[in-house]
Design brief:
The complex is a heterotrimer of chains A (about 750), B (about 160) and C (about 280). Helices cover about 30% and strands about 25% of the residues of chain A. In chain A, α5 crosses α6, α9 packs parallel to α18 and α17 packs across α18. Chain A has about 750 residues and is an alpha+beta fold. In chain A, β22 and β23 form a beta hairpin. In chain A, the strands form 7 sheets. In chain A, strands 3-5-1-12-9-10-11 form a 7-stranded mixed β-sheet, with helices on both faces. A 5-stranded mixed β-sheet of chain A has the order 7-15-14-13-8, sandwiched between helices. Chain A has a 5-stranded mixed β-sheet with strand order 16-17-27-28-29, with helices on both faces. Chain A has 19 helices and 29 strands. By secondary structure, chain C is an alpha+beta fold. In chain C, α10 runs antiparallel to α11 and α11 packs antiparallel against α12. The chains are: A alpha+beta (about 750), B alpha+beta (about 160), C alpha+beta (about 280). Chains A and B meet through α1 and α17 of A and α2, α3, α4 and α5 of B.
Chain lengths: ~750, ~160, ~280
């Protein structure tokens, strides 16, 4: 089971159109809900008026403002600072101020148009550029989060350095661009209860937030996830607000209410990857040995805190990259801007800081006269080394393995020599670049201890084994992988195991489906449950078999004696035993505990940041057209350390998909901010995602350096592929052209400008 | 107030009478009147391809087709209708085996794109496969497994 | 909203003369995103899809002119042997629009009438000195050069009761060549940053005639007539080609927008002309 390419259980239904995503779900009497949004980026609300002069029949429309909220005004998150509906002050253009719902979408749209929001403008801070300018000049900014990481004496170490390079790197908003937009439904149930369901990654984030808003509890409000058309972090925190909106409308009307965001609305107003500015000053010896690094990070948090403290934290922790630095100083801050709050997107702060450090290391390599892969070989972290936070790494470090694998797979050394030359048939210059990176698996520091993930495994009388966890299936294959893990541990065929729909009424809180933790942590706890279940079952069988033989085996659903004699199937035995015990199910539970040897101090951001890290190395080949400066990526290779691939096909799928998202980040994706605070490229016509003709063959080598506590040795995998392609491409372009672009995306316009600047300065 | 239009289409092999408002799009009629929910609205602006259907054997974006422009006797194939075709079944199996379905939102339309390509061009090159599917965005897979699945069915797998 | 789909052109023209005037719907690829995005929907829709004569594609004037009906789709242009032979750059341009699904639906008439400065079909049509045929119930048929139809930003010389019925394209003369390039934000489903076409005759290394047209570099697609005039009669040596590049870059008036920058667009315009001239010189 573990290591097998089992096909997903949900793919047939998805392909046949039988799967019901949120927009496909209807209930009798269901109303369509829409959000009324603030017109200005920053200001005070004077009035919210329902216009009577447009001939709209308001009696058919449910209308809600902040005044209608029974309980908590603010959405429960890390800090409870974001209102469900703005009341006095608006902090971003498009901020929700009111809600409407009506029996038809057309009427709801008319009602939305008929609400006038009058505002008095205040000064707005809109761009990263403005923010960084103020930051560098020490001018006032509103801080959302700040972290400092330090080890060793940077000033002293920098003195010793023979080569010191400093540069700044910037990245824009990136949109998750799941094919299915954010969507939620609230349904009244009997006895004053309510159900909230929809496209959401974390039922146990949404439930307490919505319950607090309604002034109720989780006995009266439950949340379940429906099939999702992608998420990538974009449905981690946003659904708490949207779910609250649907629930409020449902509460007021007594009817089911569905809210489905339009694409332009989703791109313009939901969470994005934080724009970043990273200044790195790094020192090395002439032979390439790294001495010291001093990193200054600014993230644009948008209007509210949401996930900024943890995104910033993770970005800062990874900012020194995959390297051994004798002295490190990292200062990271997230400031408020009057734009939609930024949030989670695969990688969670790390794509930004790794873009910076992997570009910078490449520049240092050039300054030292070392080939890029040799620079990495000389300095990468090894077992026993300490990271920037002082964590001493164990045997699960796979830096060397992924580096060597990627270098060999891509023929890197040969391409390094032959690339950079102009092909004479067309004016094309080729280049090759690599990036080495890591990604901490699971929540940072004490996070997993705080979550204390709980899982449950039920052996039902009918022979079906139920996995009850709050981990959601958003396309990544989590439900298939978890079923494989349990099937393996129990010795059953895969079709005996199902994953129950994550519904807070039915499943324990295994934590959110984020942070590359599901296989490793939730899967790990399910192994514990499955072992206990297997033991109890076999013991029960033993006691019912003549002679009570010692070592019974359970394989492929068949129980056998030590001699190999068949004693019956799992299903027969479970039916019999549970009937005799007059019970419908045996329930096995487990709760995750942080390994006692891990110590993390959040205030000083020092110690063991993660239980383990996944490692990766991406090599990208580029072709740059010397006339039009268009970049083509003919080939990408990725060596990905996953600890253990539970399902290699699904694991590769994560690496391939994440790599293409990172290529989009590298070359074409940026949202931008208009002068009125509305996000600029707010639709698929203008936000440029790669098509089949823009995507290269992506060759993936899975490397397995196991993590003992992960099921079968598995580490977290989902986010790591996001970190490598952008710096690999930037490095390849530098190799091809001799210009380094430090601002994503690397567009032909920027390459043209850089080359023109270089030519005019000669 | 829109007046109602009436048509009779052959949808997934069956004759289906439909009635709709003058400003209905094909996607609205297929999803709402005929419950063919495989036709997804991913963007409403003709960029993502998730609403692709085969209209008289050619791929069209249902969010850009005025239902009134689809005349009586038009044939429409959606993903629900692929099971009835050997090529459709082969494509679904290949998608499954290659891991070409992750979140599944692009999959129904993507399958139709592959179906249309292979119906007209049984042995496409990789570039031809990419071209045929260039109007289908996928955010999950990176496209590799999808391309491989189509090539596998064509028998021209590298 | 009402929806009408006449089978004959004269019926369509009568409807178009009525009040309230219906909105013409061809492929719908430009109009539907606007309406779905919240733009006000018209009271009356007039669909052209049943008018078979608007989809004819044939040679006229003793094979000197290719007459392309306004509802010919981009796919029709891509597949048509007549277009491939007599105006190959038009076929190439149509193949760069959207992807398969959009090409099956979008029309040559719609691409012109939508009036976008970034439309992909006007440059090859302008380089071929194409004419448009407009018809109205009141005044019959009017022909004018496409160049005169495009007046200013999204403004066309088309009366509200006029329907674009055909585009008339002078066929590629023997000994002439066409070149086309679209530079977009990605390799499919892309709006142009710069789009251009060239139709030229070269003899003994010198330009005999040349027409060069670009789009996405100003409020309307334009012929670079001053550059063309300068080029006629010149030998395609290195100095000429470089000077032509410089002049072409100066001749256009692009802006910075969310797709590209003015300096880049100028550079691409000039460089494309240079690449075409180099290709013509090699041939």
């Amino acid at each position: 089971m573990i290591g097998s390419n089992a096909t997903r259980s949900d793919s047939q239904d998805k392909m046949a159109g039988a799967t019901r995503y949120t927009a496909d779900v209807h209930y009798d009497g269901m109303l369509h809900g829409l959000t009324v949004r603030a017109p200005l980026a920053h200001g005070r609300i004077r009035a919210i008026r329902r216009r009577e002069d447009l001939g709209l029949d308001w009696s058919q429309v449910v209308f809600a403002t902040a005044d209608d909220i029974p309980g908590s005004q603010r959405v429960h998150m890390i800090q409870d600072d974001m209102p469900f509906l703005a009341r006095d002050e608006v902090l971003y253009q498009g901020e929700p101020v009111a809600l409407v719902a009506a029996p038809t979408l057309a009427l709801a749209e008319a009602a939305r148009r008929a609400v006038a929001v009058e505002m008095e403008p205040l000064e707005a801070l809109l761009t990263l550029e403005q923010m960084v300018q103020r930051h560098r000049q020490g001018q006032a900014l509103e801080e959302l989060s700040r972290w400092h990481i330090g080890r060793g004496d940077v000033a002293q170490a920098m003195e010793r350095a023979e080569i010191v390079l400093e540069a700044c790197y910037t990245t824009p908003h990136q949109e998750q661009a799941y094919l299915e937009t954010n969507a939620m439904i609230a349904v009244p149930e009997a006895n004053g209860c309510m159900r909230v369901e929809g496209s959401l990654q974390c039922p146990y984030y949404v439930a307490p937030a919505v319950a607090a808003m309604l002034g109720t509890d989780l006995d009266h409000l439950h949340v379940r996830s429906l099939p999702m058309g992608g998420a990538f972090g974009g449905k981690e925190d946003f659904p708490s607000m949207l779910g609250g909106h649907a629930a409020l409308l449902s509460h007021l009307s007594g009817r089911p209410v569905r809210m489905v965001l339009e694409r332009a609305e989703d791109v313009a107003y939901t969470t994005k990857r934080h724009p970043s500015w990273v200044r790195i000053r790094a020192g090395a010896m002439r032979d390439g040995t790294l001495c010291a690094v001093d990193i200054d990070i600014v993230f644009d948090g948008g209007a509210y805190v949401t996930m900024s403290p943890v995104v910033l934290s993770r970005g800062a922790i990874h900012a020194a990259g995959a390297y051994r630095w004798p002295a490190v100083q990292i200062d990271a801050v997230a400031y408020r801007s009057h734009t939609p709050p930024n949030g989670a997107f695969r990688g969670f702060g790390v794509p930004q800081t790794i873009f910076a450090v992997e570009s910078h290391i490449d520049a240092l390599a050039r300054a030292c006269g070392l080939p890029p892969h040799e620079m990495r070989r000389m300095n990468h972290l090894q077992p026993g080394d300490r990271t920037a936070t002082g964590q001493q790494l164990d045997q699960t470090v796979a830096a060397r393995q992924v580096l060597d694998t990627a270098v060999e797979l891509s023929g890197f050394e040969e391409r390094l020599r032959s690339a950079g030359t102009v092909r004479t048939d067309r004016r094309i210059r080729t280049g090759i670049g690599l990036a080495l990176y890591l990604h901490g698996a699971g929540f940072t520091g004490g996070g997993e201890a705080k979550i204390a993930a709980r899982v449950a495994l039920d052996l039902a009388r009918d022979g079906v084994v139920h996995i009850r966890v709050s981990s959601t299936e958003m396309g990544q294959g989590s439900h298939t992988v978890l079923a494989q893990i349990v099937a393996q541990e129990l010795g059953l065929p895969l079709d005996h195991v199902v994953v129950d729909t994550p519904d807070t009424a039915n499943v324990p809180n295994s934590g959110p489906t984020v942070a590359s933790r599901t296989t490793m942590i939730v899967g790990g706890e399910l192994v514990t449950c499955a072992r206990a279940a297997r033991q109890r079952l076999l013991q029960a069988v033993r006691s019912r078999v003549a002679g009570e033989p010692e070592e019974l085996t359970l394989q492929q659903g068949q129980i056998r004696s030590p001699g190999g004699q068949g004693l019956g199937s799992y299903t027969e035995w479970v039916r019999r035993i549970l009937s005799e015990e007059q019970t419908e199910r045996w329930v096995f539970e487990s709760q995750h505990q942080l390994s006692p040897h891990l110590h993390w101090d959040e205030a000083t951001h020092s110690g063991d940041a993660y239980a383990t890290y996944a490692w990766g190395c991406t090599v990208a080949e580029v072709e740059v057209d010397l006339d039009l400066f268009e970049v083509r990526v003919p080939h990408v290779w990725v060596a990905a350390d996953v600890g253990r691939a539970i399902n290699p096909t699904l694991a590769r799928g994560q690496v391939e998909g994440g790599t293409l998202q990172a290529l989009g980040y590298a070359l074409s994706e940026e949202v931008g901010v208009r002068s009125d605070g509305h996000l600029l490229r707010d639709r698929f016509q203008t936000y440029i995602l790669p098509t089949t003709l823009d995507s290269p063959p992506i060759e993936v080598a899975l490397v397995e350096v196991p993590y003992a506590r992960g099921p079968g040795g598995a580490k977290g995998l989902g986010e790591m592929p996001m970190n490598g392609a952008a710096p690999a491409v930037a490095n390849a372009i530098e190799h091809a052209l001799g210009v380094r672009i430090r601002d994503l995306p690397i567009t032909p316009e920027k390459i043209f400008a850089a080359i023109r600047d270089r030519e005019s300065s000669r | 107030m829109s007046h109602m239009l009436h048509r009779n289409w052959i949808v997934n092999g069956l004759s289906r009478p439909v009635a709709f408002a003058a400003d209905a799009r094909l996607i609205d009629v297929l999803r709402d009147a005929l419950s063919l929910i495989s036709v997804k609205e991913g963007c409403g602006e003709g960029e993502c391809g998730a609403c692709s259907v085969l209209l008289d054997s050619e791929p069209h974006l249902a969010c850009l087709v005025a239902a009134g422009q689809v005349d009586d006797g038009a044939t429409i194939l959606t993903a629900e209708g692929l099971e009835a075709h050997e090529l459709g079944r082969a494509l679904k199996q290949a998608f499954d085996e290659q891991g070409a379905v992750q979140c599944g939102y692009c999959s129904p339309a993507m399958l139709l794109g592959g179906f249309s390509l292979l119906s007209h061009n049984p042995r496409p090159t990789e570039h031809e496969v990419r071209e045929a599917l260039a109007g289908h965005l996928c955010r999950c897979t990176g496209y590799s497994t999808i391309i491989k699945a189509v090539q596998h069915v064509a028998g021209g797998e590298p | 909203m009402s929806f009408e789909a006449p089978a004959r052109l004269d019926q369509a023209l009568s409807l178009l003369a009525q009040s309230p005037r219906p909105t013409i719907l061809a492929g719908g690829t430009d109009l539907w995103p606007q309406w779905t995005g919240g733009a006000p929907r018209p009271e009356r829709l007039l669909s052209l899809h049943r008018i078979s004569e608007l989809r004819r594609l044939e040679l006229e004037d003793r094979d000197a002119t290719l007459r392309i009906g306004a509802t010919c789709t981009h796919r029709d242009l891509v597949r048509s042997e007549l277009v491939q032979r007599h105006c190959p750059s038009l076929s190439q341009a149509a193949a760069t629009i959207g992807a398969v699904q959009i090409q099956n639906r979008g029309t040559v008439g719609g691409n012109i009438i939508n009036g976008s400065p970034a439309a992909d079909l006007p440059p090859p049509l302008l380089a071929a000195d194409a004419e448009v045929e407009l018809a109205s119930a009141a005044r019959g048929v009017r022909r004018l050069p496409l160049e005169r139809l495009l007046v200013s930003y999204r403004t066309l010389d088309r009366a509200p009761d006029e329907l674009l019925v055909a585009v008339r394209v002078p066929v590629l003369p023997p000994g002439s060549r066409e070149l086309f390039r679209k530079v977009g934000t990605r390799r499919a489903q892309a709006i142009s940053k710069v789009v251009g076409a060239c139709r030229a005759t070269v003899s003994t290394g010198a330009i005999q005639s040349i027409a060069v047209a670009f789009g996405s570099i100003g409020p309307i697609s334009v012929r670079l007539r001053a550059v063309e005039t300068w080029l006629v009669g010149r030998t395609l040596d290195r100095e000429t080609v470089q000077e032509a590049e410089r002049r072409a870059a100066e001749a256009v008036t692009p802006i910075d927008d969310l797709r590209s920058s003015a300096p880049y667009r100028r550079h691409v315009t000039g460089r494309l002309l240079r690449m075409w001239l180099e290709a013509l010189a090699r041939a």
